[in-house]
Amino acid sequence: MKVCVITDNLYIYEHFVDLLRRKPQDAEFDFYYATWNHAFREKFGENGGMRPIKLREQGDEFFNAYDLFISLHCKQLFPDRMVTEHTCINVHPGLNPYNRGWFPQVFGIMNHMPIGVTIHLMDTELDHGPILWQRELKLGADETSKDVYERILATEMELMEEHLEDILTGNYTPMPMPSEGNINYKQDFDALCEIDRDKPATYGEVIDFLRAMTHQPYKNAYFYDADGKKVYVGIELEKEQ
């Protein structure tokens, strides 16, 4: 069996490779990353272990070379023909159907919606398709987006370790999503970043907004000062010991 794994997340890649070392599978794995992922290109180049790819430029020769495709935080959309003609599985850092799309934990924190991990069969819609396994995570009052995201990554690898053999053998029963839920795009996140200082809000809403937007080392929420310069805003939370 030949498996194509596409990922643009270094943590996920390294832990998945470690999983394969600890629990060898009766399958051959090839790894790819997006051609525009400059950090990966600098780290891996085009060596045999990890290669750049632009999925929309691939044809039958590439697609037919694999029995299974796995998306592990892939930064590119799978072409329609890829998900309709081949088995494609996505490991999504959100609890479908809530907050499909970009940065599920950000919108989960802000909107008080469930947060977690979903492994699902892919179809032609974004983060959509029959659910295979899920795990919900409870949000701590002192957690920022980064804190939750780190737990999400670890949970994704826990689920992959538990179910990788099931994925490879097709030992699963797909479950339809209970609803269409909601979806967020990059432009939705970008629209959040500029703070409207005249917008009324409760302290609770402000705290949830800031912790949702705090994800070091990234600079997300900001306002403009009198000179037209961006002033970035984050938050530090510490629970009493």
Provide a descriptive summary of the structure in words.
The structure is a single chain. The chain is of the alpha/beta class. The protein is 34% helix and 21% strand. It has eight helices and eleven strands. A seven-stranded mixed sheet has the order 3-2-1-4-5-7-8. The chain has a two-stranded parallel ribbon with strand order 6-9. Helix 1 packs across helix 6 (145-169) and helix 5 (104-111) packs antiparallel against helix 8 (203-213). The longest helix has 25 residues, at 145-169. It starts with a strand and ends in a 9-residue tail after the last strand.
Mean pLDDT: 95
Radius of gyration: 19 Å
H/E topology pattern:
EHEHEHEHEEHEEHEHHEE
Shape: globular
Beta-strand segment tally: 11
In what range is the share of β-strand residues? 15-25%
**Subunit organisation of the chains:** single chain
Report how far the terminal alpha carbons are from each other. Answer: 51 Å
Helical region count? 8
Helical content band: 25-40%
Biggest sheet architecture: 7 strands, mixed
Low-confidence blocks of residues? none
Task: Provide the spatial order of strands within the biggest beta sheet.
Answer: 3-2-1-4-5-7-8
Structural class: alpha/beta
Topology diagram in text:
Blueprint (H helix, E strand, L loop, with lengths): L1 E6 L2 H13 L5 E7 L3 H7 L6 E3 L6 H4 L4 E5 L7 H6 L2 E5 L7 E2 L2 H8 L3 E7 L9 E7 L7 H25 L13 E2 L1 H8 L9 H11 L8 E3 L5 E3 L9
Parallel strand pairs: 1-2, 1-4, 2-3, 4-5, 6-9
Antiparallel strand pairs: 5-7, 7-8, 10-11
Helix pairs in contact: 1-6, 5-8
